[in-house]
């Protein structure tokens, strides 16, 4: 694997290989078995948006793999003062062994890969969040013993998370149902692809979306960069919430996932969140393991 720009670029086999390696690395880490696959290598981490999980898990992950990570904020980089991404990519390729980037436009990530000569990993754009969905798939597999045939129901904004869940879910043989307002649907091309390649539904009928779901998933109503729209979105998304009523339409043993950070009382109630806290924090933990697998696949060629 050369880069991780978006899940659409990966085959089902490649995703499965990443999940298998992530399980192995998790086992090794829990049992004190060292795995310095990236000894002497350095990852640059460019963050144009805030982060807790992505930043800490990539940095710790590189350390556990025997390498090191550099946190690069736009305030420190000339990119923040307008140096073109084509030049930044070529310069950083001379120093680093890989780059993780969190930014706004997907094109910026694709351009880094095009102009640079080292692996590029997408740590979230407005379009998608592949690392998060790999961690979600790992957690679903752990908790449910498999992925194929499980129904994933996503409630809320048709945002970066919805886009990546559609692609990851369908590629791994899940049924995917999106419950969202008509004006906030996920990417139209991805929905058309999903309808052609699997069992896919997008509706504003939340009970229909949640019916017999194995996994209930949600995310914030206003993503990073949408702060100006927050008040309008609060009105438009009222009721798009995973609460105990909606959970009663899912399977009795359904699990709950959220990429976090969560806004309790908006997209999820405190009651549902706390009842499923173990699954939610396993999901957050698995960011570390799955990203280590991605780093190894991209930067160590094993
Ligand atoms: N889920 C996620 O990507 O979290 P951070 O924004 O804290 O990195
Ligand atoms: N949709 C959210 C995900 C955060 C991990 C955002 O982009 O802010």
Describe this structure in words.
The protein is globular and about 55 Å long. Helix content is 44%, strand content 14%. The chain contains twelve helices and nine strands. A five-stranded parallel sheet has the order 7-6-5-8-9. It has a four-stranded parallel sheet with strand order 2-1-3-4, sandwiched between helices. The mean pLDDT is 97. The longest helix is centred in the C-terminal third of the chain and has 23 residues, at 277-299. It has 302 residues and is an alpha/beta fold. Bound molecules: phosphoric acid mono(formamide)ester (CP) and norvaline. The site of phosphoric acid mono(formamide)ester (CP) has 8 residues, from helix 2.
List keywords for this structure.
302 residues, alpha/beta, five-stranded parallel β-sheet, four-stranded parallel β-sheet, 14% strand, binds phosphoric acid mono(formamide)ester, binds norvaline
What is the structure about, briefly put?
By secondary structure, the protein is α/β, with parallel strands linked by helices. The chain is built from 12 helices and 9 strands.
